């Protein structure tokens, strides 16, 4: 498993906030301006801009400016590496539990 | 998708650090004391204790104290909810790309 990935650090940190996860789910349905997102999540424009910046830095959101309006859409990041890390972790847990079960069965057999 | 989960906030934050992910991978192989973890990751005891506390709060690590030694093992948290969130996000992305493809094909058909 790859430990030192600044990308994983950034993405997991971006995902560790309920508002930011909410914004990603919202943008999954349709693009939205920062003003629309701020209204929906009942945040100030400044507050929403900060969340969008975090998401943009991690590649989860892309923005484009037309005139005075900045529109947000889902970015290029597909969470493949993050899904892979979690999956490997779950497999490791499962194999530890299997080994524990085998050990317990052997111990039982001996008693 | 469930947005407001303090659990997801905590786990994703815990996973956003390479050392903490490394500790989980290490504990997946075998339990270890905080001293052993500190040595392996070249951190001070205090530094490693802080990381272990973050992992313990999120349920990813469990610790037990025998005399002066605190031993760490993998905790009860199985990352099911985290895997589910990422999977739903990836499905949403895939379905958006499908819709985009259908739209492009229709547009091509018309020209």
Overview of this protein structure:
Two copies of one chain form a homodimer. Chain A is of the alpha+beta class and 111 residues long. The first copy, chain A, has helices at 6-15, 18-29, 34-40, 45-57, 80-110, and strands at residues 32-33, 61-66, 69-74. The radius of gyration of chain A is 21 Å and the shape is elongated. The model of chain A has no long low-confidence stretch (mean pLDDT 90). Chains A and B meet through helix 1, helix 2 and helix 5 of A and helix 1, helix 2 and helix 5 of B.
What's the rounded overall pLDDT mean of chain A? 90
Number of strand elements of chain A:
3
Poorly predicted ranges of chain A: none
Between the first and last Cα atoms of chain A, what is the distance in angstroms? 38 Å
Summing up helix and strand content along with how strands pair, one would put the structural category of chain A as alpha+beta
Helix content of chain A: 55-70%
Characterize the biggest β-sheet of chain A.
Answer: 3 strands, antiparallel
Coarse morphology of chain A: elongated
Our estimate of the beta-strand percent of chain A is: 5-15%
- Write down the oligomeric state: homodimer
Strand order of the largest sheet of chain A: 1-3-2
Query: Tally the helices of chain A: what do you get?
Result: 5
- Over all CA atoms, what is the radius of gyration of chain A? 21 Å
What letter string, H or E per element, gives the SSE order of chain A? HHEHHEEH
Largest interface: A-B, 33 and 34 residues
